[in-house]
Amino acid sequence: MPAARRKLCMMMMMFSIFICVLVSVSWNLRHRSVQEKIRIPSQRFWHQHVVSESFWNKEQQRLDFIFNPIVNFVLSRNSLVELPDWLNDTGPLDPCVPDDRVPMQILDYNSLTQGFKDFLLHMRCRTYPMLINQPRICDGKPFLLLVVKSQIPHFDRRQAIRETWGRAGVLANRTVATVFLLGNALPVDHFPDLLGMLGHEAELHKDLLQWDYRDTFYNLTLKEVLFLEWFSQNCPHAQYILKGDDDVFVNTLRIIDFLEGLSEMKAKDLFIGDVIRDAGPLRNPKLKYFVPESVFLGQYPPYAGGGGYLLSREIALRLHNASRQVVLYPIDDVYTGMCLKKLGLAPDKHSGFRTFDIEVKNRNNPCIYRSLMLVHSRTPQEMLTIWPWIIHPELDCQ
């Protein structure tokens, strides 16, 4: 028999054996019960899970368990499966009641600042009344939504932004909308009563969003989560979002020009900023970003500095969904990085974002600002000085 024919016969025989095996397996699967096809893990299996001693990590393990689709499938098919004991330590039924487990589970709780304590006690609460809303601000389906994190007393910063890079309307033939995110100022924080002025500002400019929670550094993460919820309900058709602090300067023209040059694929998955990698929690209690080991263990995922970053509508909506599966963390930009990681994404670094400022020798150079997207930080007076450098066509930067 010729070699070519022998080879063909061998191939046909192997193919026939493969078909027989496939049919046999298929028949067995069809004739086995659901209970036989799904191996229900034993109680011993659940207890193999190593529970973290750090409070945040343990809370995240709990959320990971709750949102695990395989676990939910098994539990839905077999009600006799017992949950591990550590999952029963759930805290108060109302997530907005102070969590009395916290002082007992965090050994150095009493050494923390009052702001950090308050964050931990209310870490599960994500529902706060909205005091000022602008539900129609995105009726025009803006190309770019400028979202500015601010505080009640910062009237001068907000007004400088309105007169410069945050001016709402049409810019470079694109529709731009602006909102300022605010919490509340409580008497315990020793702020003067500014609610009358704030009400006048809200009525005059119609660009304030305010929720009834204590506006502190540790609650910036809460401000992020509440905004994502608001965005998903009130502004899901805005194509792009620039989020920044009220002390950054933004070259809005440069951003619009950049966005118009994106491919469809890059535009959909856009999340850029001044990215920080290979970082972890600071353990010095004297530092602003201090987080003790009793609260969090591990490294931070890549994240964009919270001074400002640019993202697409699609990513914002996905972040809203992911945020429900990530425990609030006391540093807002790290938290956003955690939510991106939950989606299997990471922010892209862009040299136009300078959240750690630029060299001193270049700070008064108009042409430098023409090439950048965002610089941190600038005073209201500096914003008013820089903006004409951006919009005046007679400036020659060749």
TrEMBL record:
Its cofactor is Mn(2+). Pathway: Protein modification; protein glycosylation. Keywords: Glycoprotein, Glycosyltransferase, Golgi apparatus, Manganese, Membrane, Signal-anchor, Transferase, Transmembrane, Transmembrane helix. GO terms for molecular function: N-acetyllactosaminide beta-1,3-N-acetylglucosaminyltransferase activity. Pfam families: Galactosyl_T (PF01762). GO terms for cellular component: Golgi membrane. InterPro entries: Glyco_trans_31 (IPR002659). Its main location: Golgi. It is a single-pass type II membrane protein. The keyword Endoplasmic reticulum does not apply. GO terms for biological process: poly-N-acetyllactosamine biosynthetic process; protein O-linked glycosylation. Its EC number is 2.4.1.-. It is found in: Golgi apparatus membrane. It comes from the Eukaryota. It catalyses: a beta-D-galactosyl-(1->4)-N-acetyl-beta-D-glucosaminyl derivative + UDP-N-acetyl-alpha-D-glucosamine = an N-acetyl-beta-D-glucosaminyl-(1->3)-beta-D-galactosyl-(1->4)-N-acetyl-beta-D-glucosaminyl derivative + UDP + H(+). Coiled coil: none annotated. Interacts with B3GNT8; this interaction greatly increases B3GNT2 catalytic activity, independently of B3GNT8 enzymatic activity. Belongs to the glycosyltransferase 31 family. This is Hexosyltransferase. It comes from Cottoperca gobio (Frogmouth).
